[in-house]
Design a protein that fits this description.
33% of the residues lie in helices and 18% in strands. By secondary structure, the chain is α/β, with parallel strands linked by helices. The longest helix is centred in the N-terminal third of the chain and has 16 residues. Bound molecules: ligand BJW and zinc ion.
Length: 244
């Protein structure tokens, strides 16, 4: 029932914005942060993805990122990434905002992509020496932990940790994308702000809002349609009915 309604809405809409989270990459084999399998060595993401955790134990935090880089390197985009990439090219005005750092949307060829939490394949200087961030796709990481090519100090993953500000240009682009006809949440627990606030902004601006998630989330009761099933199945199903 929800799928029919969402498919019909998408057919009628010109401006579509899709916000994705870790669940869009589950079928690729990338673990989510929360829920089953979301823990790494008994650590919660809130204990590892912070500047304080890195200051306390950079080795431990880098080990977590090295493990994830190795895992993600062997993963490929799944049908959910593929459908989203196709829509990003075929729909009149389609924006994709992702909280994921795995770059699987990039590898699927997504257009108009806004990566609000950075990329696991980029690094920056922990000391902020002034050198630009750089891309590093090496697996395994050698030397370990990696160092800054500009000053020789400790490098850090160029991702956004708790308590850190998102890039202002990304926030502006994401807020701009809230002016749309359909705002679709895919595979996000909708608990991490400011990304979790975007659906409310889209709703305020008159968008039809929908969620695709295997579980219910804090916004399930607030969106117009909540579909509780795997994103890769739902999106493939909608794509079959949807000819832009
Ligand atoms: C499937 C599926 C399938 C599975 N199909 N579905 C307002 C209110 C309260 C708190 C705050 C607030 N504003 C700011 C805060 C503080 C904080 C915050 O939000 N805290 C909350 C946890 C309470 N936010 C921040 O600190 C942010 N910065 C900020 O606001 O700056 C301004 C500021 C500065 C200083 C002080 C105050 C304000 C930064 C947030 C950065 C988050 N970073 C991380 C790590 C990125 C790097 C890395 O990857 O290592 O981003 S944390 C982690 O959570 C990661 C994710 O992008 C993010 C969201 O997680 P996501 O994607 O939703 O994944 P899961 O695992 O939670 O959910 C997966 C979902 O998929 C589940 O629901 C499953 O059911 C589903 N699923 N398989 C469909 N096949
Ligand atoms: Zn440096």
């Amino acid at each position: 029932m929800g799928i029919e309604e969402l498919a019909a809405r998408l057919r009628q809409s010109r401006r579509v914005t899709i916000l994705t989270g870790a669940g869009v990459s589950t079928a690729s084999g990338v673990p989510t942060f929360r829920g089953p399998g979301g823990l790494w060595r008994q650590c919660r993401p809130e204990d590892l993805a912070t500047p304080a955790a890195f200051r306390r134990n950079p080795h431990l935090v880098w080990e977590w990122y090295a493990w994830r880089r190795e895992l993600i390197a062997s993963c490929r985009p799944n049908p959910a990434h593929d459908v989203i990439a196709r829509w990003s090219h075929e729909l009149d005005d389609c924006r994709v905002i992702t909280q994921n750092v795995d770059d699987l949307h990039v590898r699927a060829g997504t257009a108009n992509l806004i990566r609000v939490h950075g990329s696991i394949w980029a690094m920056s200087c922990w000391r902020a020496c002034g050198g630009s961030p750089w891309r590093d796709e090496s697996v395994p990481l050698l030397p370990f932990p990696p160092s800054c090519p500009h000053c020789g100090g400790l490098a850090r993953p160029a991702v956004v940790w708790f308590g850190e500000s998102l890039d202002q240009a990304d926030i502006d682009a994401a807020i701009h994308a809230c002016s749309c006809d359909v705002f679709l949440l895919v595979g996000t627990s909708s608990v991490v702000y400011p990304a979790a606030g975007l659906v409310h902004e889209a709703r305020r601006r008159g968008a039809f809002t929908a969620e695709i998630n295997v579980d219910s989330t804090p916004v399930s009761s607030e969106v117009d349609v909540a579909i509780h099933a795997p994103a890769e199945e739902v999106l493939t199903n909608i794509a079959k009915r949807h000819t832009p």
